[in-house]
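Quick start: what a row looks like.
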Amino acid sequence: MKLVLFLHTLIEGAIGLLFLFYPAAPDLVPGFADGGGSSFTMFMHMYGLAAIFLAAVSGYLLWRMDSLKEPTGQTLLVFLIFYHLGMAVIQLQENIDPRAAYLHFLLVILFGGVFGRLRGWYEESRARP
């Protein structure tokens, strides 16, 4: 659980800072290199701010691991799952390079596993010989 949240915080924070402060960020991210202009720059900054917000949410959950046992922490985890699922679907439809979509879908699977473990969905299967 901690590793998934740590990696998510690290990746989202790095992407967010990259999109906010590094002008050549679109060249580094798959599928973004063909954009340009002031509206595209605004989009990149908004995406960077959203990524930093998501890093803060997962950082909070990592810092306060006991909050994952409470309904609020689990709700935040479900929000992260649905955000990354939506991003995966949008990027599979709109982006010619599917690598970013696969990363978001991997995060859906990992966060889904964390949520399933928190809810005790795996306890019954471990009890069987």
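That is the whole record. Residues 5 and 58 are 6 Å apart (CA to CA). Residues 38-63 form the longest helix (26 residues).
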